[in-house]
Amino acid sequence: MKIPSRASIPWSRIHLPFITVLLTLIYTQSTQACERSCQLSVSHAFADKYQLLTSRHFLTLSQKINQSFFHGVPPPPAAYTPTEGNNAILHLQESLTRAQQAWDVSLFRTVFDTIFVDEPQFRGDCNEPHRVDQPAAGVNWTMSDCHAMDYICGNPPSICHFLPMIKVRIERKLAGLLGVKVGGGSVGSSDGGSGTPGSADDGDLYANFLGPALSKVIMTHPTLEPYTATLHGNLNQILEIVGDQIVKEAALFARPGAEPFRGDERWRPEWDLEIKLLLLSFP
Ligand SMILES: *[C@@H]1O[C@H](CO)[C@@H](O)[C@H](O)[C@H]1NC(C)=O
Ligand SMILES: *[C@@H]1O[C@H](CO)[C@@H](O)[C@H](O)[C@H]1NC(C)=O
Fold first, then answer.
1. Radius of gyration for the alpha carbons in the chain, expressed in angstroms and rounded
2. pLDDT tens digits, residue range 92-115?
3. Of 21, 36, 56, 218, which has the most beta carbons under 10 Å away?
4. pLDDT tens, 53-73?
């Protein structure tokens, strides 16, 4: 490093105010962003809600397995006893629970990426043009800041303002991913995009959870072996029906101006307030 000579001292004097302004700008901008802890908290808050909302699809699957897994197989005691039947269904439902746990874990990442990685990203300068004043340390943003911050940038009020749009983006993505997991194919087939429809057998749910569970059931109940194709077909039908339903929802979200989930099993209006207040509590 070059040791400054006397001649360089006037230079630093001239530039000191400029550097101070620059540092202030950088500081101001960084305190206004929804930073790491804000990003993580908000993503977790969203992911918790979507766990609840997507759990209904797993519940439907579980009920349908109970209702129609043995469809077309002679009733007890011909090929299986009532206890064996019950155990088989329980075993399949347990594999479904594991699939749901894996899905729940993946939800957080999907939500995080949708808000902070996918375009349009909630990052960048919120001062051009100026809309809101950064509150003093320890003071929360207000709902009026949420209302006023009407363009996409990095501060919490901007995310708050665009919450409806963010929900549509997340729901569309989740429905696409879950539809493919359950019904097979690839992401995009749901909304007529670039994906390809496939068989439920190729979906993650069958390939990694229900399929192995079915094999185990048949292995432990050799009397069911002649009905392997029937049982497999029943599971395939169940997955197709539920997968289609999820995909149809995804197609709804793909429409411009789509509304987020509504109704009892759907997004609750008070969750908006909960997430907005959480957001506004970050600097
Ligand atoms: C299947 O459904 C019946 C009737 O609703 C219920 O009694 C039974 O406990 C269920 N079995 C399993 C394994 O969930
Ligand atoms: C800021 O918001 C959070 C979350 O709503 C709340 O718990 C906290 O009390 C608020 N702080 C102030 C100073 O109002």
1. 27
2. 999 999 999 999 999 999 999 999
3. 218
4. 899 899 999 999 999 999 999
- State if residue 277 touches ligand 2 by the CB under 6 angstroms criterion: yes
Q: pLDDT digits over 116-157, tens only?
A: 999 999 988 999 899 999 999 999 999 999 999 999 999 999
Q: Residue 173 CA to chain centroid, in angstroms?
A: 7
Distance in angstroms (rounded) separating the CA atoms of residues 90 and 37:
40
Q: Is 66 in the pocket of ligand 1 (CB under 6 A)?
A: yes
Where do the structural domains in the chain lie, given as residue ranges? Answer: 36-129+140-280
Neighbours of 72 (CB within 10 A): 11
Residue 126 to residue 132: CA distance in whole angstroms: 8
pLDDT computed for residue 12 by the predictor: 45
Specify whether the CB–CB gap between 95 and 88 falls below 8 A: no
Read off the pLDDT of each residue in 233-262 and give the average, rounded to a whole number: 77
Residue 7 has pLDDT above 50, yes or no: no
> Is the beta carbon of 45 within 6 A of some atom in ligand 2?
no
Helices 82-116 and 163-183: crossing angle in degrees, nearest 10, is: 140
C-alpha dihedral over 152, 155, 158, 159, to 10 degrees?
A: 100
Alpha carbon distance 19, 111 (integer Å): 38
Nearest CA to ligand 1 atom 7: 66
Number of residues assigned to the chain: 283
